[in-house]
């Protein structure tokens, strides 16, 4: 398209949410954007792949510290090796994240255009979306800020809305923004749909770095000043760019809608006729998933009888549902959810109760991913627990010790390279090694296949915070 040849578009992917309405699959330790919910790729991967090509630079990913290795690995899986991954020490909503990304881009070229996307939204018509991004980018060159509004298909109460103003004469799909509306009740949503003048607020934005920074200087100067300090003081950590907690803790927690979009005079909306969803609930996922002839979505080890218009998923044991309609049943290794599909927005309230009750299942899975692979709790008893460790080829755990627990490692598959005090030991399949409490030790995989180890822990205190790291390949020292 004419006008897009002389600049680059920088994809900026915001990956900070936890997706609690999709519990028990989505949890803080492994949120919905990292799961393959609709395709073979995770939602993050599908989002990144929309912006691959000569028109785009390598992406900027803004995420939290806990997900950094998962995100880096998922990007490598789809061939994106040079992403800039900016780590926030704590969540501070979309405005600080967008300000930080704009500053990074402006340091290279303030005229570059940013395309900001959430990592957890689905768009099915990618080619049409790219054409709309090109249209938005041309307007962004003229110091406009573009958001994307989706033509609504139902009175959805889980989305914000944008009221269209006058059409922009020089663009096919662009309108002035008359007003933003927060998530409405059902009757209000019906009224807005019937008026034909409202769009769902997708949360996508297109603008130049210098335009956004100028508008932030005008409307949120305190936030901008604090972000400038945070970006200046950021540290490089392996292939991550880490913002320091002391520079971020006092930054206002505010969305880009409140900070800029509702105030700026440069705001336009692209009216997009796209199949889009932020998959904010199990009902939303059911709505856009392929269904059988009676409206069911069945994933995994699932058996249905006389069941209609339901979403049933099992990642582990057999899930059998009989004689129910409009339900959601989700089974993981350590939790089961059963809810009315039409009330699945209320799952967030269950998660809040689990957090109050200090149930670890509220925020963590039985399988916990680490940069070297993962571990999974198999048995948790009094003064002992059993875990499965899977170590990627060529990877090592940290050199560490524990004050309160002893460990016994049994190699199930592969070859383990074990450091135990001053010893270096090769442990093969069906062999084992014992590590008394207080012993300096390390587990590595020198082979070419994944190393599978059963770890038996015993002691008075078995929590993960009883790890004293001495050396670590991933800069995770205490």
From TrEMBL:
UniProt keyword list: GTP-binding, Nucleotide-binding, Nucleotidyltransferase, Transferase
Documented EC number(s): 2.7.7.13
Chemical reaction(s) catalysed: alpha-D-mannose 1-phosphate + GTP + H(+) = GDP-alpha-D-mannose + diphosphate
The organism's place on the tree of life at top rank: Bacteria
GO biological process: GDP-mannose biosynthetic process; polysaccharide biosynthetic process
Any Pfam family matching the protein: NTP_transferase
Domain MannoseP isomerase/GMP-like beta-helix: 306-354
Domain Mannose-6-phosphate isomerase type II C-terminal, first and last residues per copy: 359-472
Signal sequence segment: none
GO molecular function, one term: GTP binding
Keyword Nucleotidyltransferase: yes
CDD domains per UniProt: cupin_PMI_typeII_C, GDP-M1P_Guanylyltransferase
Record-annotated Nucleotidyl transferase domain positions: 11-292
NCBIfam families in UniProt: GMP_PMI
Family affiliation: Belongs to the mannose-6-phosphate isomerase type 2 family.
Protein name: mannose-1-phosphate guanylyltransferase
Organism field: Commensalibacter papalotli (ex Servin-Garciduenas et al. 2014)
């Amino acid at each position: 398209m004419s006008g897009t040849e002389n600049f680059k578009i920088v994809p900026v992917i915001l990956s900070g949410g936890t997706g609690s309405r999709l519990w028990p699959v989505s949890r803080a330790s492994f949120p919905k954007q990292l799961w393959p919910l609709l395709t073979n790729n995770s939602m993050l991967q599908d989002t990144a792949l929309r912006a691959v090509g000569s028109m785009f630079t390598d992406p900027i990913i803004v995420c939290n510290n806990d997900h950094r290795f998962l995100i880096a690995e998922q990007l490598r899986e789809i061939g994106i090796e040079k992403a800039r991954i900016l780590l926030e020490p704590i969540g501070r909503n979309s405005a600080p994240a967008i300000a930080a990304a704009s500053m990074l881009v402006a340091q290279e070229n303030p005229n570059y255009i940013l395309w900001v996307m959430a990592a957890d939204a689905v768009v099915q018509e990618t080619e049409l979306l790219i054409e709309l991004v090109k249209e938005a980018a041309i307007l962004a060159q003229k110091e406009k800020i573009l958001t994307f509004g989706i033509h609504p298909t139902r009175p959805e109460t889980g989305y914000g809305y944008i009221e269209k103003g006058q059409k922009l004469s020089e663009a096919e799909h662009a309108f002035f923004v008359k007003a933003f509306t927060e998530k409405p009740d059902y009757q209000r949503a019906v009224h807005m749909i019937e008026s034909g003048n409202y769009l769902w607020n997708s949360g996508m934005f297109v603008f130049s770095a210098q335009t956004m920074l100028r508008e932030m200087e005008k409307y949120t100067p305190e936030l901008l000043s604090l972000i400038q300090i945070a970006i200046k003081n950021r540290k490089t950590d392996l292939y991550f760019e880490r913002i320091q907690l002391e520079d971020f803790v006092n930054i206002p927690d505010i969305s880009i809608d409140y900070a800029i979009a509702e105030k700026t005079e440069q705001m336009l909306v692209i009216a997009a006729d796209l199949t889009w969803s932020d998959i904010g609930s199990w009902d939303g996922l059911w709505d856009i998933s392929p269904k059988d002839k009676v409206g069911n979505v069945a994933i995994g080890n699932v058996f249905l009888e006389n069941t209609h218009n339901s979403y049933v998923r099992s990642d582990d044991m057999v899930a059998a549902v009989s004689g129910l309609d409009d339900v959601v049943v989700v089974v993981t290794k350590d939790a089961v959810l059963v809810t009315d599909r039409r009330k699945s927005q209320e799952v967030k309230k269950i998660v809040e109760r689990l957090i109050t009750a200090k149930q670890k299942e509220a925020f963590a899975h039985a399988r916990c991913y680490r940069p070297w692979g993962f571990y999974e709790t198999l048995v948790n008893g009094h003064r002992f627990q059993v875990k499965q460790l899977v170590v990627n080829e060529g990877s090592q755990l940290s050199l560490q010790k524990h004050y309160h627990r002893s460990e016994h490692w049994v190699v199930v598959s592969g070859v383990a390279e074990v450091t135990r005090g001053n010893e270096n030991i090769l442990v093969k399949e069906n062999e084992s090694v014992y590590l008394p409490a207080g012993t300096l030790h390390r587990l590595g995989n020198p082979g070419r296949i994944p190393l599978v180890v059963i770890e038996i822990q015993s002691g008075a205190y078995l929590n993960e915070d009883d790890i004293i790291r001495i050396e670590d390949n991933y800069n995770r020292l205490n």
